[in-house]
Amino acid sequence: MISEPELVGEDEPGSSADVVSGFDAEQGAPSGRRRWHGALWGVAGALTASAVWAAAVFGYGIGGDGKPDARGYRVESGSCAAMELKELARALGKPESETTTELDGIEHPALHRIRCTVDFPESELGERDGGEGAGWYKGYQASLTAELHKETDPRPEFEASSTVTDMDGTSVDRVERVPDLGDQAYLLIMGDNTLRLNVVEGGGVVTLALSASLSYNESEGGSEEEMPDAPEEPETLAYQGHLINDMRDVMKALKTG
């Protein structure tokens, strides 16, 4: 069960509430005075509404027509080139193949979306029995999903999907807010040894995930040998800093096209 997401590096919010004194409709004040207070409430309400609208326009780029600001993002069929992941490559090894573009991309007047994946080199766990012996390997895969919403504000759905307790049947162990990244950013620590970083900025929604896996390679000779016990699951949480830094680079690359 996940409680309120933790915001790393943010002060504890205050609990101040707006309090208006000196107005009580039951006190029998002169009618002119009641009308004056009503006028003040009307002005205050108008100012509050204007402040909320201004915050939406200047804080999140939502205009009077309700359409989000693209903030310079370009999401096209070739946008997977933004997935360089230099920090993760330094930690896990340079990917041996090109980034793979998934087939469920969207180019629609209301939404552009691309999805792409890249595999890092597998590494051997423990010793093998000669050059053709069986053994356990660990591997890492990174995936990128980038969306550009052109008609509707993506923040309500983003907030809902970033604070869930399970995702596609996989439990979410912990959710942490990441400061100073886009308009909002959440790091999800998943139960299947996956880190998922979700960021929204204007009409852009970007998700960068890193998942780890174990695989067992049988001997090439095909001999029937007993499979050794599986080693501990590969680490992913240690790479959260790399994931966040690579996300910054991905967001910048998506803006420069």
Automatic annotation (TrEMBL):
Keywords: Membrane, Transmembrane, Transmembrane helix
The keyword Transmembrane helix belongs to this UniProt entry's keyword annotation: yes
Transmembrane regions: 39-62
Region of interest (Disordered), ranges: 1-31
Name of this protein: Secreted protein
